[in-house]
Specification:
391 residues; nine-stranded mixed β-sheet; 2 helices; elongated
């Protein structure tokens, strides 16, 4: 790759370890600065390489350093070179399954030339950081450790000819597509506002705002993350809610996040992460009720209706009802709602004409489906992630 040099990968230090390293460095630096020079009385103050001392500057004696001489005027200009400014506007001009082209606005320096840039990047929810070095350019393509459907975060610093380094650029996070040839190479947007709902001794209720896509969002992948380096896919759902079973053993941390996916398998950037409280929460009073009725049933098929009631004092602007069939029912069609099913979980979303549920208002939608062994009705429903009473 032209203009890029690679250095060995390394692990991201954890906060406790990083604090210990920084503390040790600070203590060592204090000790070194407090130690007297071997020949303090005759030493000439060091001047940075390549920078001439100010006109009329003289050596300072030990007595003057001890405070017997008046301090230098505050208006004396500094002769210390200023580090470069950080590069700005770090963006990805092209993202493919195996490469990411970065572009940025060059850093500036008041003393000397910018000689290059140091780039670090890592895969989200991993523990290894990769690094690369680019020359005095404003664009480079990263190909190492880049693959389909990966979420990667980048940042960079500038270096000048004196070896000084700038502050970090902005952080850039991208996700690669799963195909470069279509029919769909655009990942969905990231799910927003992932929140923890009711927590029991064995389950946690999760909900989030829906993603968008240029073609259509097919569903969502729900992950558990141990806070260190292991993520595990625990569910794939069609709606924006999921009740997860809590792990039987106590993990280092119990974190969750969600990624949207489309029909060809492109996945979004991850949502925010949430952590499950260590103690169960008390669920708020239900503000909804769902009534499910089998209108007709025959060997191998059924027709049912479900009515969602708003029991709250405020209107519900946009609704999603989620439930799971206890039998082997499969939805084949529906009306008055957009209905999808993944496994046993069914999600029904409002259509334009019944989008708003007024206080004490309701909306009814219908389902037609097939069954083989059991057509038992569902026993639990969620409205926009909140549990509803049944009946």
């Amino acid at each position: 790759m032209t203009g890029v040099l690679w250095s060995s990968l390394f692990c991201r230090p954890r906060p406790a370890l990083l604090a210990a390293v920084l503390l040790s460095t600070a203590v060592l630096g204090t000790a070194l600065s407090a130690a007297p020079a071997a020949d303090a009385a005759t030493a000439v103050p060091a001047v940075h390489p390549g920078v001439a001392p100010a006109a009329g500057a003289v050596a300072v004696s030990a007595a003057e350093q001890a405070g017997t001489a008046p301090p230098a005027p505050a208006s004396t200009p500094s002769t210390t070179p200023v580090p470069p400014s950080p590069p700005t506007n770090l963006t990805a001009s092209e993202v493919r399954t195996g490469s990411i082209t970065l572009t940025w606005t060059a850093a500036t320096s008041s003393c000397c030339a910018i000689t290059g840039y140091d780039i670090t990047y890592y895969q989200e929810f991993g523990d290894v950081i990769f690094s690369a070095t680019a020359g005095a350019v404003t664009s480079t393509t990263i190909t190492t450790h880049v693959g389909p459907g990966m979420q990667l975060s980048f940042r960079m610093i500038a270096r000048d000819s004196l070896g000084q380094r700038s502050n970090w650029s902005n952080l850039l996070t991208v996700v690669t597509p799963v195909t470069d040839t279509g029919p769909d190479t655009t990942p969905p947007s990231a799910p927003q506002s992932l929140t923890v709902g009711e927590v029991t001794a064995s389950t946690v209720a999760l909900s989030w705002s829906p993603s968008t896509d240029n073609v259509g969002v097919l569903g969502y992948n729900v992950y558990r993350f141990d806070g260190w380096y292991t993520s595990r896919l625990i569910a794939t759902v069609s709606g924006t809610t999921y009740t997860a079973s809590l792990p039987t053993s106590t993990p280092l941390r119990d974190l969750y996040y969600v990624r949207a996916r489309d029909a060809v398998g492109n996945v979004s950037i991850a949502s925010n992460t949430v952590e499950v409280p260590t103690t169960p929460t008390t669920p708020p009073p239900s503000t909804c009720r769902v009534t499910y009725r089998n209108q007709s049933e025959w060997p191998g098929g059924f027709v049912a209706t479900a009515t969602v009631h708003n029991l709250g004092a405020a209107p519900v602007d946009g609704w999603t009802v989620t439930f799971s069939y206890p039998g082997d029912q499969q939805v084949t069609s529906g009306w008055n709602a957009t209905i999808g099913q993944i496994g046993a979980t069914v999600t029904a979303r409002n259509v334009d004409w019944n989008r708003v549920l007024a206080p004490d208002g309701s909306a009814t939608f219908g389902i037609q489906g097939r069954w083989g062994v059991s057509d038992a009705p569902p026993t639990g429903f969620l409205l926009n992630g909140a549990a509803c009473t049944v009946g």
